[in-house]
Amino acid sequence: MRILLPTCLLAVLLISGSAFGQEHTSNAFAFKVNEPIVLDGNLDEEIWGPEGWNGDFMQYFPSDTSLAIAQSRIKIAFDDNNLYIAAVMENLGPREYVSTSLRRDYRGAQNDGITFVFDTFNDKTNAFQFGVNPYGVQREGLISNGGNRSEDLSLAWDNKWYAEAKIFENHWQVEAIIPLSTVRFKDGAQNWNINFYRIDSDAGERSSWSPLPRNFNMSSIAFNRKLIFEEPLRKNSANISLIPYVAGKTSKNFLENTSEPFKPAVGGDAKVGIGPAMNLDLTFNPDFSQVEVDQQVTNLDRFEIFFPERRQFFLENGDLFDSFGQPRSKAFFSRRIGVDIDSATGQNVQSKIIYGARLSGKISEDWRIGAMNMQTATDSEAGIAGKNFSVLAIQKKVFERSNIGLIYVDKESLGLDEYKSLFHPEEYNRLIGMDFNLNSANGKWTGKAFYHRTFESRETVKPYSFNAYMLFSDIHWGGSVSIQDIGKDFNPEVGFLPRSDFKRLNPDISYMFYPNSSLINRHGPKLEFEGYWNETIGTTDRDYNISYTVRFNSFAELTVTQKNRYLYLFQDFDPTRTGGEKLPAGTDYNTKTLGFEFRSNPRNVFNVKMTADGGEYYTGNYFSLVSELGLRMGYMANISMNFNYARIRLPAPQSDADLILVGPRIDLTFTKKLFWTTFIQYNNQIDNLNINTRLQWRFAPVSDFFLVYTDNYFPSDFSPKQRSLVFKLNYWLNL
């Protein structure tokens, strides 16, 4: 039975990859122009005449069976160097627009905007996305894995392109120029897969040019139509970008009574196009001080929490590296690079990255390749040896939208003098893995199967990770099943693995009703089972969950969940994580909890996100509230308050706890080029008050000056812990 179930699931994955098709609809046409277009948003050039527009947008929300109420039309032209886009978005009458900020890379269903999606290799798996809102604020991003989930769209990717928007009484319009050197595509390409979609806050409507079933994510590229170019595309301009920086930092550690005098630093990145489809990223002495701090969370779980990558160097084609594995077992996690353990304190500390190089992209229509090498510095005072990280990833497209991939990850420690070698002969960690990713042609079936193995100098037992997963999504029915087996000594040091030595089974099924209602858009139940076990103990975790979700036409959403949980402790554990008396290993617990999650209409000036649950908790009980209150003052200011509260009551000898995390955030937009963000986080679980304030001046396209001040205090008496001041100036230069 152990072998039969995974084998059957793998067979279904393979069959589904080729068994499902879709209908094709009309295409768009890109006109060749001989003279560059003047970017002013007026659309008065001859090419923007009445013929050749692409309109008849279809509703995606609240329904997907009728034409959009607020119609849009798009027209595309090109020359040897640029792609030109004109877009006209009609309104139902004079109105106000919603924009949460004038900061680049806006996101959210509340923001008015038009978005252009280009699948330049026609693989229906990866795409470039460019968007503009009525105030001319731009956003650009990368779509991976078919765009099936919201996390498949990353807006952290930056590049140079240009847009102007103008607002009129009954419509707004956009004119955009995207240099062809900005995107990767096959030289001589005659067509791309494309789509356009619009969010209209006034009508409460989302619409797209290529019809999208409303049970799919709006960024899904399974249903894109064709863009036919009048002539084959050629890449004539150089694709080299230099991004040098100069930075400085000073800091003081009050706990250790040490200080770091002001220290200047220089370095930079380079992006070099290798042919039309490959990209070489180089970084020397990188500095990531402009990256925002992570939002703190109250951790009541026994395992590590995942925080996503934000550093620009790792982002383009990032899915080629980080898509291997799944959230509970990732083969490669780039945030492991640049972090090490201080041998004296045992604490995580930042280690200096000396250089990095990464080559990634398409080598043919069906093959993608990625190779990366990075080196960190030796820190003798902290007892940290320099590390070298190498990653090689290869991906082959199969069927229409699926792929098979291979990955190799190698972490080496620099050798000490007595070894007479570059690397320490015993301090290494390596991983080899294979993944199959399923995306059916019609988008209804997605799945994954993988096997990874780690290698170390010590003797290991079962150093592997296996997973097979399948998901089905239709207009009403949805369901998935996942089978996972993580061996006892599987240890991906450059990956992410919260726990090992377990087997996991996780099926779920859901159904969605679509009533004819002016209030409710859809609603339905979901049943889920999740079980963990291993050969030594037997069952260690078991959840039976039932939930009901209601989505409103206003974009608001409510979910109620009842959980029945069994948990076995295989090591001593303090349920409060505050240093109290631990529950002993070998004990087990059955608990019942009830919770809800609510998200209000994001278009409102005042909105709220709230999650609350409570019930039995180990030997006692708990109540937890996680909330975010937001106030939007036009596009000039966004003020939010994160408030997390956990009330834990346990019988003696365990400790009670009232855990509080408060995080006000103020985001001010002075212009489209000047921003100021302040983030304050009080966390009594770690007894810390953190203040992070960041001033950003975008003095040129994708070129910024940052000034960042960070302070940490003891909340009881406001005595300081650690303080730093950082500035950074970077400039993006296209050659």
Note down, in words, how this protein is organized.
The chain is mostly beta strands and 735 residues long. The protein contains 2 helices and 42 strands. The strands form 4 sheets. The chain has a 24-stranded antiparallel β-barrel. Strands 1, 2, 3, 4, 5, 6, 7, 8, 9, 10, 11, 12 and 13 form a 13-stranded mixed β-sheet that branches. A two-stranded antiparallel sheet has the order 17-18. It comes from Algoriphagus zhangzhouensis. Residues 1-21 form the signal peptide.
Whole-number mean pLDDT: 88
- Report helical residue fraction: under 10%
* Cα shape: globular
The CATH architecture classification of the domain at 33-229 is Sandwich
Number of alpha- plus pi-helical segments: 2
CA gyration radius, whole angstroms:
26 Å
Report how far apart the termini are.
Answer: 60 Å
Roughly what fraction of the amino acids lie in strands?
over 45%
Name the CATH class of the domain at 33-229: Mainly Beta
Structural class by SSE content: mainly beta
Within the CATH hierarchy, at the fold level, what is the topology of the domain at 33-229?
A: Immunoglobulin-like
Largest sheet: 24 strands, antiparallel, barrel
Low-confidence stretches: 1-24, 289-307
Total beta strands: 42
Keywords: Signal
Organism: Algoriphagus zhangzhouensis
Signal peptide: 1-21
Pfam family, one: DUF5916
Which terms would index this structure?
735 residues, mainly beta, 13-stranded mixed beta sheet, disordered N terminus
